[in-house]
Amino acid sequence: MLACDFFHVDTVLMRQLYVPFFIELDTRRVYATGITTNPAGEWVTQQARNLSFTPADLARPTKFLIRDRDTKFTASFDEVLRADGARIIRTPIRSPGANAFGELFVGTARRECLDSMLVLHRPQLEAVLSEFVDHDNGHRPYRSLGQQVPLAVGGRPLRISHPDPAQLRRSDKLGGLVHEYRLVA
Questions:
Q1: Minimal CB count within 10 Å: which of 13, 17, 18, 130?
Q2: Cα dist. 62→23, 49, 66 in Å?
Q3: What is the pTM of this model?
């Protein structure tokens, strides 16, 4: 199952940038597909096409796509996903909780990253979101996934009973807003 939605980011120069994203519900893997100032239906349809051509592909074929009733999601957008075998599920009107996984990702991205920085322009936002999505997919564990990260779902998590603090290394991401920790051998 996939969920998709948009969120916007206000820049210092008083422009709104719109970010569409898709999230796999079983693995929590996020795909941020692009950024635009004008999310017209044709552009959104192209983002759906771009998602269907990702080289890593989705963990499983998409059977369902959850989306809201926004006019940006046109019939051609739905048709691209139907061609991949997905059934489109539209959420009820004014019910953001019906797309809870999408709302959780937006809240996390805002709290952990976007609310703590000033965005000047689109290239900066692209770099920031790329790094944040890489962190979210490759390092941030989820309780519902057995403390695994989305890219490691299905593998066995490494159990460490008494880590040696001398072997613990921290790397800063996003200019120090996010920290990643790892053990060195």
A1: 13
A2: 11, 14, 11
A3: 0.84
- Rounded Cα distance between 167 and 23, Å, is 34
pLDDT digits (tens, 9 = 90+) for 87-124: 999 999 988 888 999 999 999 999 999 999 999 999 99
Would 184 be classed as within a structural domain? Answer: no
- Alpha-carbon distance of 48 to 77, in angstroms, equals 7
* Amino acid letter, residue 15: R
Domain of 20 in residue numbering reads as 2-155
The whole-angstrom separation of Cα 132 and Cα 146 is: 21
What is the rounded distance in angstroms from the CA atom of residue 7 to the CA atom of residue 17? 8
Question: From CA 128, how far away is CA 132, in angstroms rounded?
Answer: 6
- Alpha carbon distance 82, 177 (integer Å): 39
Number of structural domains (the chain) is: 1
